[in-house]
Design a protein that fits this description.
Length: 296
C-alpha cells in the first residue's frame, strides 16, 4: 500500500507543537532527520538534542485527504503560534517491500585479515573463515559504525587464545562474540541496558556459542575479575568516569582497547588512562579514535 508523507523543515523549538498537530490530524508515525548533515555526537546526560535544522516527517495513509488536512494544520498552527507553518511539502511514498529494501542495505563486512560480520540472510563470502552472524537490531553495534569497526579490526590482530576478555558496554555483543570466535576462552559482558544484555544473549545463541562462555551482567552485578583483554566501546565521558573500574578489571600486563572517542577528546581520555596504562598512539577512522594500552 502506498503512503503519503508530509515533510516540514523546522527549528528544534517547533518540534513538539508540529509533531502533535501531525498526529492529531491522522499521521500514523512521525520521524525526525537532520536537514544539513550536522552531527550530534555526545549529548549531555538527560538531554535529547536535535539538529538546528530538522526535517519532521508525518506518514499518512494513502486514503488521507491532504487537500483538507494540510489547510487545517496550517490554520491551527497559525492560531497556536501566531506564525505560518514552516516550509513543507507533500509526497507520495511509493509502495515497496520495505523490509526487503532495508535488508538489502546490509552486506557482509570484513575486519582485519580473518573476521567477517554477516547478516543472517546472506551467505558468508568465506564459508571457512571466522564468520560472526549478526542482524541489525535494537542494541548498538553491527560493525557499520567507525567505533565498532576500529575495535573489530584491532581484535582480529590479537592472539586471544584462551584469554579472558571483558566487553564493557557490550551492546549487541558484537565485540565479545568476535573475541570468542577468535579464540578467547571466556568473555564477561557488562551493560547498563537490560535490553542490550538480552540482545547479546540472543546473538550468542545465533552464533552457536555456549552461553556460559559469554557471561552477561549489569554493572553493579559484574564479578571481580582481572581480564587479559579489556574492551570498552562507549563514549569519552563515561570512559573517564569509569576509568578506575576499567583499570581494576584489567590484569597487570593486560591490554585495553577504548573507543567511542572523538578526535578532540582522545588526549583527555588517554591522559586519564596513563595513570594505569602505557598508552599507544591513537588509531583514527573518520572523526573517531581508538586508544590502546597495556597495564603497567
Amino acid at each position: 500500500m502506498p503512503w503519503i508523507q508530509v515533510k516540514v523543515t523546522i527549528h528544534p523549538d517547533q518540534v513538539s507543537s508540529i509533531e502533535d498537530l501531525l498526529l492529531e490530524f491522522g499521521a500514523c508515525a512521525v520521524t525526525m532527520e537532520d536537514a544539513e548533515d550536522q552531527p550530534v555526537f555526545e549529548p549531555e546526560r538527560g538531554t535529547t538534542p536535535l539538529w538546528k535544522h530538522t526535517v519532521l516527517t508525518g506518514l499518512f495513509d494513502a486514503e488521507a485527504d491532504m487537500q483538507v488536512i494540510i489547510p487545517e494544520i496550517e490554520s491551527k498552527y497559525l492560531a497556536l503560534s501566531g506564525n505560518p507553518l514552516p516550509p513543507h511539502k507533500v509526497e507520495i511514498l511509493e509502495d515497496k517491500d520495505w523490509e526487503r529494501e532495508w535488508m538489502e542495505n546490509f552486506h557482509p563486512m570484513k575486519f582485519g585479515e580473518r573476521l567477517w560480520i554477516c547478516p543472517s540472510w546472506r551467505e558468508p563470502p568465506e564459508p571457512n573463515g571466522i564468520n560472526l552472524m549478526l542482524d541489525p537490531g535494537l542494541a548498538f553495534g553491527t560493525g557499520t559504525h567507525p567505533t565498532t569497526s576500529l575495535c573489530l579490526a584491532w581484535l582480529d590482530g590479537q592472539d586471544l587464545t584462551d584469554k579472558i576478555v571483558v566487553d564493557y558496554g557490550c551492546g549487541s555483543g558484537i565485540l565479545g562474540i568476535a573475541a570468542l570466535l577468535l579464540g578467547a576462552k571466556r568473555v564477561i559482558g557488562v551493560d547498563n541496558d537490560p535490553q542490550a544484555l538480552e540482545a547479546s544473549k540472543e546473538n550468542t545463541r545465533r552464533n552457536n556459542i555456549a552461553e556460559d562462555r559469554f557471561e552477561l551482567y549489569l554493572p553493579d552485578d559484574a564479578p571481580n575479575i582481572e581480564a587479559d583483554v579489556m574492551l570498552a566501546n562507549i563514549l569519552a565521558q563515561p570512559l573517564i568516569m569509569l576509568s578506575s573500574n576499567i583499570a581494576a578489571m584489567t590484569k597487570q600486563d593486560g591490554l585495553i582497547a577504548l573507543s567511542g572517542i572523538l578526535e578532540q577528546q582522545a588526549n583527555d581520555v588517554s591522559e586519564c588512562y596513563k595513570t594505569w596504562f602505557d598508552m599507544e598512539t591513537p588509531t583514527q577512522k573518520d572523526e573517531w579514535m581508538r586508544l590502546n594500552g597495556r597495564k603497567q
